[in-house]
Amino acid sequence: MELKKGIWLIYFHLMLFYVNGSALNCTWPNAESLYDALDETIFSKNHLRPVNLLETPTNVSISFILAGILGVNEKAQTFTTFLWIRLVWIIEGLTWDEKECGSEKLSVKRENLWIPDIFILEFMDEDQSPITPYVYIDSKGHVTDEKPLKVVSSCKLGILRFPFDVQNCSLTFGSIIHYDSAIRMVLGLSAERILSQSREVLQTEGEWELLNITAAESLYSLDGGVYHDIVFNDTFIFIQT
Ligand SMILES: *[C@@H]1O[C@H](CO)[C@@H](O)[C@H](O)[C@H]1NC(C)=O
Ligand SMILES: *[C@@H]1O[C@H](CO)[C@@H](O)[C@H](O)[C@H]1NC(C)=O
Ligand SMILES: *[C@@H]1O[C@H](CO)[C@@H](O)[C@H](O)[C@H]1NC(C)=O
Ligand SMILES: *[C@@H]1O[C@H](CO)[C@@H](O)[C@H](O)[C@H]1NC(C)=O
Ligand SMILES: *[C@@H]1O[C@H](CO)[C@@H](O)[C@H](O)[C@H]1NC(C)=O
Q: Which of 50, 65, 163, 217 has its CA 20 to 30 A from that of 99?
């Protein structure tokens, strides 16, 4: 009986950790050894959310650069933008020594990892964005997923006071299936920084000007669960050239 209990406890203990909590063991300080160590410890678990206890939510931080305003379709009430999105989350317990493993970060195929299912609620068209096959993992267990995204989103457009018109379009980022007990969205950069960076790189034909970006967390209930999202409201002004 006692033995059985002991075995159960050991089993439970093993189950408890996604990564066993100690730093990775790299045979040599090079990328191949680091890859092998990651392969042994986390790649085989890519079907599981990377936390030790499933009650712990994964915090997915989001930021983006609005790099282009491609156009509006007043009839379809859609708005097309080009974003560079950056998502960052943590693989709980994963660490390695930069000297022992030879580098501070490594790019790996996204198929090797658990990736959060973050979508834009207002998305209205099939995703024609280029595919980015790699994500970065760093020695503290952060995963960084950066990708370009062409977004055709629904937006209540009112082109009434042409040529100067202010439009407010929302982009809501959140998980499609995970409730807030599993995925929580957090702001990776302040809305002010997102606005200033976007203004620096924004490529438009001079037709549109980005006025403001605001961001807020949003919780909404559906089917007995609560989703934790982040809403960005982008305010644009239409200028006739
Ligand atoms: C690294 O090796 C040590 C000593 O053998 C071991 O205790 C530890 O669990 C190993 N780390 C990982 C992540 O496997
Ligand atoms: C996410 O944030 C919550 C609240 O700050 C914290 O309790 C939780 O441990 C975090 N999750 C991870 C995986 O770090
Ligand atoms: C957008 O927001 C501005 C400022 O809050 C407001 O003046 C304007 O009417 C709004 N436009 C639309 C289309 O909702
Ligand atoms: C942008 O929105 C924020 C929050 O509503 C506000 O404090 C700020 O003054 C606005 N900036 C501009 C340029 O409209
Ligand atoms: C974004 O716009 C929606 C709808 O107009 C509004 O309810 C919400 O408060 C706005 N959020 C922010 C952060 O401005």
A: 50
